[in-house]
């Protein structure tokens, strides 16, 4: 493993004063509109809970995209199901013909991802699932916000999950919703005071790391709220030993931990999701995405994965298709550019020839942050550096 320097700008949203500007007047479509929400500590825990709610378990087949991250497969294995991988097309849309060919009597569920925030053809997929008598799980880890055919993303699936850490300045979080089934009987447990403390402090620290806490100090009410909340809990904690302060999912690991599956998300995360300015998140992500799109279109050796940004799409990141990933990845990382590579590691026992498109995307699509907490200076620095690297690759053919 090569050690790259720490990214010079935050890869994911960090806490700042701007995180809080409230916007009570405007409604923004999101997965929160779908119905009752269960807040847990990760997206993968939500997938495991969705499987349990659907009573999908031992030997049941679950259709997963060949373009995936390990954290999506882990809960399927954890629940003793059999993953069956299906093809996706080069625009990341699901290949329904391929899925159809893989169906059999033990196939119970189709999981689809709205990659990078861009919706699948969900109306068609919904009809497909109904016709073939399988359930649908919408993985909205990349699409917390947005709509399709006038309906919030997350409302097409029997269940839908989100990974809230990808959109909010928080340490841990995922959620489960259902537009079709009641989830009120699903009981979540508290993860304890040590966890609550860690969730709050970690988010503050991350903001501090990137110079945001200077602004935060101006927020009198938040430190007071946190101080009282945290110290109250520390006192209680002193007697209890062996507390697991946080789930592995928050440390970048791909695994799923049984004991974290049914734990409720922290007060801090739930508070942030309620209080963060949704209008700003949506507006800024779209603006940042378009700035990246405009600046990085037409460079040699790469092109934006998607050709535009339709209304109603709220991007998770900016995906750039890179022709020679080996050459450019290290160069960009050494400059301190944050790069996410979704699916960089694919499920080991998946046959590699199932979907050459997925194998290619997993290597060649670099994702750059477009989140709401990037400052204009950070965004233009990143754009300048990325342009420099690709321009030095040579002229456009
Ligand atoms: C990140 C991710 C998950 C898992 O979310 P965690 O919060 O990391 O557990 C699931 N599906 C997709 C598509 C993801 O990108």
Question: How would you describe what is shown here?
Answer:
It is a single chain. Helix 1 runs parallel beside helix 2. This protein has a 7-stranded mixed sheet with strand order 1-9-8-5-4-2-3, sandwiched between helices. A 3-stranded antiparallel sheet has the order 10-11-12. The protein has a two-stranded antiparallel sheet with strand order 6-7. It has a domain of 116 residues: Aspartate Aminotransferase, domain 1 (Alpha-Beta Complex), CATH 3.90.1150.10. Helices cover 35% and strands 13% of the residues. It is of the alpha/beta class and 397 residues long. The model has no long low-confidence stretch (mean pLDDT 92). Pyridoxal-5'-phosphate binds next to helix 1 and helix 2.
Task: Throw out a few tags for this protein.
binds pyridoxal-5'-phosphate, alpha/beta, about 35% helix, three-stranded antiparallel β-sheet, seven-stranded mixed β-sheet, Aspartate Aminotransferase, domain 1, about 400 residues, globular
CATH-level-4 superfamily name of the domain at 278-393: Aspartate Aminotransferase, domain 1
The secondary structure category is alpha/beta
Instruction: Provide the spatial order of strands within the biggest beta sheet.
Output: 1-9-8-5-4-2-3
Give the CATH architecture of the domain at 278-393. Alpha-Beta Complex
CATH topology of the domain at 278-393: Aspartate Aminotransferase, domain 1
Q: For this structure, what is the CATH class of the domain at 278-393?
A: Alpha Beta
Number of strands: 12
* General shape: globular
Share of helix among residues?
25-40%
């Amino acid at each position: 493993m090569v050690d790259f320097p720490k990214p010079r700008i935050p890869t994911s949203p960090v806490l700042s004063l701007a995180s809080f500007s409230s916007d009570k007047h405007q409604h923004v479509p999101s997965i929160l509109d779908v119905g009752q929400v269960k807040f847990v500590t990760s997206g993968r825990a939500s997938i495991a809970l969705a499987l349990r709610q659907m009573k999908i378990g031992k030997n049941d087949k679950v259709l997963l995209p060949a373009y995936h991250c390990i954290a999506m497969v882990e809960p399927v294995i954890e629940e003793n199901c059999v993953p069956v991988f299906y093809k996706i097309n080069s625009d990341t849309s699901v290949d329904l013909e391929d899925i159809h060919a893989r169906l059999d009597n033990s196939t119970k569920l189709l999981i689809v991802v709205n990659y990078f925030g861009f919706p699948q053809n969900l109306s068609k997929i919904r009809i497909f699932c109904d016709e073939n008598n399988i359930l649908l799980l919408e993985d909205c880890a990349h699409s917390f916000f947005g709509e399709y055919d006038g309906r919030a993303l997350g409302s097409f699936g029997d269940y839908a999950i989100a990974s809230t850490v990808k959109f909010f300045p928080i340490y841990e979080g995922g959620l489960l919703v259902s537009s079709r089934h009641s989830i009120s009987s699903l009981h979540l447990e508290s993860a304890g005071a040590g966890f609550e403390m860690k969730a709050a402090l970690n988010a503050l620290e991350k903001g501090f790391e990137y110079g945001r806490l200077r602004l935060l100090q101006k927020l009198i009410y938040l430190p007071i709220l946190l101080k009282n909340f945290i110290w109250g809990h520390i006192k209680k904690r002193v007697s209890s030993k062996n507390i697991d302060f946080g789930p592995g999912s928050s440390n970048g690991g791909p695994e799923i931990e049984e004991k974290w599956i049914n734990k409720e998300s922290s007060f801090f995360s739930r508070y942030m999701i309620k209080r963060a300015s949704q209008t700003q998140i949506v507006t800024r992500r779209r603006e940042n995405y378009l700035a990246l799109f405009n600046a990085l279109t037409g460079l040699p050796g790469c092109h934006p994965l998607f050709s535009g940004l339709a209304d109603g799409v709220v991007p998770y990141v900016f995906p750039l298709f890179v022709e020679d990933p080996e050459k450019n990845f290290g160069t960009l990382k050494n400059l301190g550019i944050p790069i996410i590579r979704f699916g960089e590691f694919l499920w080991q026992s998946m046959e590699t020839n199932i979907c050459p498109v997925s194998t290619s995307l997993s290597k060649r699509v670099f994702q750059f942050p477009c989140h709401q907490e990037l400052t204009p200076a950070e965004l233009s620095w990143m754009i300048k550096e990325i342009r420099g690297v690709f321009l030095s690759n040579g002229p456009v053919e």
